Amino acid sequence: MTKPRIGVLTSGGDCPGLNAVLRGVVLAAEKLGWEVLGFLDGFEGLLPPGNYIVLDRKRAAGIMPRGGTIIGTTNRGHFVAKVGAGDRVEVAERVIADARNVLKGLGVDGLIIVGGDGSMTTALQLQEAGINCIGVPKTIDNDLEATAMTFGFDSAVATVMDALDRLHTTATSHKRVMVLEVMGRHAGWIALHGGIAGGAHVILIPEIPFDYEKIAAALQARANRGNLSAIVVVAEGARPRDGQVVVHPSAEGEDKFGGIGVVVAREIAARTGKETRCTVLGHLQRGGAPTTLDRILGTRFGVKAVKLIHEKQFGSMVSYQNYQVRHVPIADAVNRLRLVPPGGELVQTARDVDISFGD
Ligand code: F6P
After folding, report:
1. 314 contacts 127 by C-beta, under 8 angstroms
2. Is 82 in the pocket of ligand 1 (CB under 6 A)?
């Protein structure tokens, strides 16, 4: 008798912890006597004739500390269900029908989709078309409303903190202002957590539009206390009160966030006369080994996804709430971003330790 089969794919931008999820899926599925097919390069692996590898205990050995995903990913291709700022587009019926036939032909009963908001929008369309899907949320931005935490975030924050620890020493030596641009298009969680942990003096986030004069005043107040260096963290989606976000065209034809750090550094230098430098952390935040927390969260999410298939809770997404791994309908998970509350406790704590938001 052939073993029951399930499929798994990773989609969208990668992040540390994806391999922990895959390992969790494989080990939990083997316990149930199931075989796991890992579809390659996101949803594209579902295109005929089906591009996959068998993920077994042997393949999963030693992958936990590895960044990225051993089955590849993409945020482009035939299954994109969101464009630009997030408008839903329909995946072509033919493409979905082809994927359904591939899965049927392979005898795959349930498909685990590890991805962010855009991938969950695709998952919803596949589910509506009769493909049994379970979602596992992933984003370093930690901005999905339906889950209190996603794996990858903690690792990204650790990278920001490490960068800030390094910037502090050179900033102090030269009495300079060091600006660090970090990821976060709509939500400032990485900047806020990383900035607090790394002892930043100014944190600029998308949720709190800033004023250059206020930033200059905060740095001046610091200088008046005898501190001639300063650290500024800016999320890529932050913008001045009367200005726009900074984007640049990419080769793929889509505007990408990034570039605000250089602008902020230039404006600070012009207003304070201080030597100012900018570092853009970019995709370093998405690479490298996952932290303890992300390894554990990834494992828990992978195991839970298998349980949800076992219970036939199709159309659900794994979710972390109140320290428990639960599930919610995928439909509840898409299109709802969790932003930093400007009046919330974390922002207030930052203000209480003299961090300025430039407002
Ligand atoms: O959503 C995750 C994210 O890392 C954002 O923070 C960032 O703006 C974007 O993806 C980068 O995308 P890409 O890898 O396509 O350049």
Report:
1. yes
2. no
Per-residue pLDDT tens over the stretch 108-153: 999 999 999 999 999 999 999 999 999 999 999 999 989 999 999 9
Q: If we measure between CA atoms, which residue out of 252, 284, 290 comes closest to residue 183?
A: 284
Token reading at 144: 């999905």
Cα–Cα distance measured from residue 164 to residue 261, given in angstroms and rounded to the nearest whole number: 14
Residue 141 annotated in active site: yes
pLDDT digits (tens, 9 = 90+) for 22-38: 999 999 999 999 999 99
Q: Is 49 strand, coil or helix?
A: coil
Q: Which tokens sit at 293?
A: 């927390």
Locus of tokens 């002892």: 199
**Alpha helices (H) in 182-291, listed in sequence order:** 189-197, 212-224, 260-272
Distances (CA, A) of 117 to 39, 124, 185: 19, 11, 13
Is residue 13 lining ligand 1, measured as CB closer than 6 Å? yes
Contact status, residue 135 vs residue 145, Cβ threshold 8 Å: no
Q: Is 186 in the pocket of ligand 1 (CB under 6 A)?
A: no
